[in-house]
Amino acid sequence: MRKRKIWVWVFLIYIVLTPLWLWLAWLYKPLTPLNIAIIDKTVLTKKVREHISFDWLLTNMRITKKDSSFYDPNIDYLGIFPERTDEFNRNKNKYQIKGLEQYSYQQIDSIAEQLDMAYFADTYGLYYNEWQDKNILEHSNLIYGGMSPADIHLLSALKSKKKLIITEFNDIATPTTKNIRDQFAILFGIEWTGWAGRYFDVLDTNINKELPYWLK
């Protein structure tokens, strides 16, 4: 009986200390510095939900910036930077746009030279209705978004240098222009069919608020 209790305690201690062992294993894993450009044009709040999982992955793998600091999902990306912290804080309507469009092609070439990889998380962008919390399923003016000539220039430079590029499946969909889409298709040897699909489990527009308004 006593021996059984000892094994029970050993097991409990093991379970309790497992998170500590895992944390120590992570802590002593060597850092891997990589210079990564994260592009996200669909950022409504500081929750940065479109690329935060990628930053979590980098941290978990102990991939850092060149200065050995971890990537900050709220700072270390290119795109739109909103002031608001959540969707319900509509009093804060300021934002800053810091995309590749602010650089000359010569500067982008220099950036490409220094990069190890680029991750295009989302280029869909931000629309006026979504920003103002109006009917987000109706078309409205684009504030910022779509793949740009500057993006294509970076992609071309990285590809020519055989560097890693990761893009979202619909990075060349709306609101990217046909001209840019064609350049992307030629650059990567793909064919754009224009088809996209989405599954809706409920087709009742009174229940499923994500259904387009024009279906009513």
Protein described:
Helices cover 33% and strands 15% of the residues. It has 216 residues and is α/β, with parallel strands linked by helices. It has one domain (29-215). The strands form 3 sheets. Strands 5-4-2-6-9 form a 5-stranded mixed β-sheet, with helices on one face. The chain has a two-stranded parallel sheet with strand order 1-3. Helix 3 crosses helix 5. It is built from 6 helices and 9 strands; from the N terminus they run H-E-E-H-E-E-E-H-E-E-H-E-H-E-H.
Q: In short, what is this structure?
A:
The protein has 216 residues and is α/β, with parallel strands linked by helices.
The radius of gyration over CA amounts to 22 Å
Count of spatially separate domains: 1
- What proportion of the residues is helical, as a percent range? 25-40%
Shape summary: globular
Number of helices: 6
Percentage beta strand: 15-25%
Low-confidence runs:
none
Strand order in the sheet with the most strands: 5-4-2-6-9
Average of pLDDT? 86
Sheet of most strands: 5 strands, mixed
**Based on helices, strands and strand pairing, what is the structural class?**
alpha/beta
Q: Order of helices and strands, N to C? A: HEEHEEEHEEHEHEH
Q: Care to count the β-strands?
A: 9
Distance between the first and last residues' Cα: 70 Å
